[in-house]
Amino acid sequence: MKVIVTGILGQDGANMVEYLLKNTEAKIFGMIRRTSNPNFVNCKAFIKNERFQLVYGDLSDSVSLDNLVRDIQPDYFINFAAQSFVGCSWEIPLQTFDANATGVARCLEAVRRFQPKCRFYSAGSSEEFGDVQYSPQDIHHPVRPRSPYGASKAAARHLVKVYRESYNLYAVHSILFNHEGTKRGEEFVTRKISKGVARIYHAIKNNQSFSPIELGNLDAQRDWSDSEDFVDGVWKIMNQEKPKDYVLSSNETHTIREFINKSFLCAGIDGVWHGSGQQEEMSVSTEYAIKNEIQSSILVKINPKFYRPAEVELLLGDSTPARKELGWNPKISFDNLVERMVKYDIEIFKI
Length: 351
Ligand code: GDR
Prior knowledge:
Blueprint: E1 2-6, H1 11-23, E2 27-32, E3 52-56, H2 62-72, E4 76-79, H3 93-114, E5 119-125, H4 148-167, E6 171-176, E7 179-180, H5 189-205, E8 213-215, E9 221-222, E10 225-226, H6 227-237, E11 247-248, E12 254-255, H7 256-266, E13 271-274, E14 281-284, H8 286-292, E15 298-302, H9 320-326, H10 334-348
Parallel strand pairs: 1-2, 1-4, 2-3, 4-5, 5-6, 6-11, 7-10, 8-15
Antiparallel strand pairs: 9-12, 13-14, 14-15
């Protein structure tokens, strides 16, 4: 069995490769773009594995995708490569659309032309639901994106459906709600918080001053899971008798503020909120400041530069069909997730 996985330098691609090496006998071809200085930090566990091979390819280059599919003749093609940062998608809308939508069309064409038996997975996003009409959101929720990123993923979803129905491909585009973990990039809010908490934790421990974590909208609500649970769900979605799209989610929603509260709690730092709107801040409690002889006291403050031109205020998924029909059984709760991320970042923190 041969599997092409794209996006292996990122969180999901790397977790997918680790999962496949552990749970299958497959040979894995991990696709990366040619860059002068690639960061393999997420690939340490498998880069030297004999069942793993690095290959060059690019979602913007159909020749590279055609060649890979023609030469490898994969049984599965799992596409986690993307411009995945919603916040940045207003600044680079065309690149976002090219990678996330046209890139999926290029993959589908390569599969259709050179290995139509190959099963294809496209990573969908809850951002496609956008300004939601009802909660929890299931697979039938209307597509109402609020960002160039959401629009690009919605386009990919339509393309996958068209190719599935037109050419009888096993092609799926399942909706992933937010999913995080210790491989998460620092631009995403959860890792930004867990890294910031680790930085402040070490500053307090060493009697040093610290600057606050600067964030945008704290009221947004997200349905967070662990990426390691999701790659198991994705593999189950790819191995059904007939292709069908599912939602993967925790079925719980939490505000950014709640994520912050839990993170500081995990680090044993006692914070209190005060103020509202752009003046809202979290600082260490008086008792904690006295006990630890802390001078700088602000832990979190608002920086409007992190507000988005349009926001998805609430996401809450309904993954009941995936749990019932696929036997998908996510293991890492919201509390576990926050704890894992904060403890890991405290452990690896370097000044
Ligand atoms: P999201 O993730 O846009 O939901 O997309 P992100 O972590 O970037 O934002 C979540 C929410 O936090 C608010 N927020 C901030 N976000 C960032 N990044 N930085 C900040 O400083 C900050 N302050 C507040 C945001 O406004 C937002 O409401 C993720 C990505 O992984 C997508 O690729 C994926 O498709 C979806 O999840 C499901």
